[in-house]
Amino acid sequence: xAFITSEALADTGYVVLDDDTSPIDPAEWRDLEYVGWRSSxxxxxxxxxxxxxxxxxxxFWNRTPPRTDKDGVWIDAQVxxxxxxxxxxxxxxxxIGRCRVIExxxxxxxxxxxxxxxxxxxxxxxxxxxxxxxxxxxxTDDTESMLILRSDxxxxxxxxxxxxxxxxxxxxxTQRFWHAVWHxxxxxxxxxxxxxxxxxxxxxxxxxxxxxxHPPTVELDPRLVEAAQVEMHRRIEERRRAFEAQxxxxxxxxxxxx
Length: 258
Prior knowledge:
Elements: E1 14-17, H1 27-30, E2 35-36, E3 43-47, E4 49-50, E5 73-74, H2 76-81, H3 83-90, E6 96-104, H4 109-114, E7 132-138, E8 142-150, E9 159-164, E10 169-172, E11 178-182, E12 189-197, H5 200-208, H6 222-245
Antiparallel strand pairs: 1-10, 2-3, 3-6, 4-5, 6-12, 7-10, 7-12, 8-9, 8-11
């Protein structure tokens, strides 16, 4: 039996929605409690939901009993600080798993390419139920920054680059793409990330906000792209040798949300 998926994501695997132009007090993300977590760059996360309503960013499958990335429990203390962010996550009416704010420090393009990763949103998900995807709302005005998507980690010809100005909204099957953010700012970037369960509610939300599966991609100098490719392979090989010296076999990185 197949999963329930979103028709809007069938073509490209992502859509860009109309911008969210409603104001949000920056205190809603700045005053949250953050925890360190591995991700595509130097990051911290402020969870709004978790497996059991505690301050925890772990995958729900790493708790007891394990479950897939669904049925997140709201963290009262965090929601009290960020009620508008909670309302943004609830707006589609779709099921919610993990929901958190990410804080990403500035990086460069080579960093982002090296940190490309795929998420593992659907571990333990049951066929016949909704496929879990991710929704993003960029909270800070990072006009020079971009979300990078690749269907092939090592092929820049598959790369799509989506701008991250304030209020930009994107829904992505992040299990389908290698992805990371190139944050070109001088201050941290903040974004709301929500795991949504595909189904009619999410489809209606995407349609209501004119989800575009073919938005413009940011153009980059091909020389910059080629230099980053070389640097990515250099870092991967350096890391492989370091792990090999310790008798450790490297595995591809997974579940490291942007």
